[in-house]
Amino acid sequence: MNIELKNRLKSLLWRAGGMAFIASSAYIFNVGDVFAIDPKALLNVAILAFMGLVVGEITKILNK
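Now predict its structure.
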C-alpha cells in the first residue's frame, strides 16, 4: 500500500473518531435526557460527519 494513502487513511480514521465523538456528545447534551435519545438520529449524525471527512480527504488528494 502506498505510504501517502496509508497516511491519508490514518488521518481519516483519527479525525472521524474525534468528529463522531464530538457530534454524538453534542447531540446527547442537546437532548438532555439520555433515555430520549433516538439511536437512528445519532447514527445519521455519525454517518454524515464521516461522509464530510471522506469528501475532505478526497479534495486533498485532488488538490495536489
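Residues 16 and 52 are 9 Å apart (CA to CA).
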